[in-house]
């Protein structure tokens, strides 16, 4: 099954109010903040769209609030791909697929990065396989779109403010519409 743009908008409308994994924000606030940070950094439309959609797997595979506290890795980075693949190319899909491994890589490459992770990100890191070793980090860095995934990951980590103002979902759906394949 694939999603239409209307389906994506509906998912955010229906489930975007869910808490975002133990953080003081909702799923929608997190998506909008991540996209806003990408846009502010001058990212292209594909990476802004990926930033908005990077956690949509949580809205498709509902596991309740903070599944990591129950030992669940919902594999959201993979779950969303079959639903999104008919609409988007690799410039959107690969940063989404790689954003969890980007966290594992950043932990290996930047000792200070680990100390900045939220409690839920630390819990989920363990469930997601832990910190990469040097060989795994090197292999990750050689993948296409790894640098986009690293940027997305850093924005993801910063997108957890209950007071940050962002453009609306409709603003970002316009960006998403511009990168639809076909």
From TrEMBL:
Pfam families linked to this entry: HD
The UniProt keywords, alphabetically, are:
Hydrolase
Source superkingdom: Bacteria
Q: Which GO terms describe its molecular function?
A: hydrolase activity
Ranges for domain HD come to 29-120
Query: Could you tell me which CDD domains the record lists for this protein?
Result: HDc
Q: Has the keyword Hydrolase been applied to this entry?
A: yes
The protein in question is named HD phosphohydrolase-like protein
């Amino acid at each position: 099954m694939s999603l239409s743009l209307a389906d994506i908008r509906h998912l955010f409308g229906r489930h975007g109010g869910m808490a975002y994994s133990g953080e003081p924000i909702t799923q929608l606030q997190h998506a909008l903040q991540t996209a806003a940070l990408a846009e502010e950094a001058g990212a292209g439309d594909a990476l802004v769209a990926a930033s908005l959609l990077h956690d949509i797997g949580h809205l498709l595979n509902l596991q309740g609030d903070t599944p990591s506290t129950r030992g669940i890795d919902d594999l959201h980075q993979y779950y969303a791909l079959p639903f999104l693949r008919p609409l988007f190319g690799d410039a959107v899909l690969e940063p989404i697929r790689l954003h969890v491994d980007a966290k594992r890589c950043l932990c290996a490459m930047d000792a200070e990065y680990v100390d900045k992770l939220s409690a839920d990100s630390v819990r989920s890191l363990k469930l997601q396989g832990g910190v990469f070793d040097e060989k795994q980090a090197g292999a990750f860095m050689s993948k296409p779109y790894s640098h986009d995934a690293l940027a997305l990951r850093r924005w993801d980590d910063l997108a957890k403010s209950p007071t940050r103002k962002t453009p609306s979902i409709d603003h970002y759906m316009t960006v998403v519409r511009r990168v639809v394949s076909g």
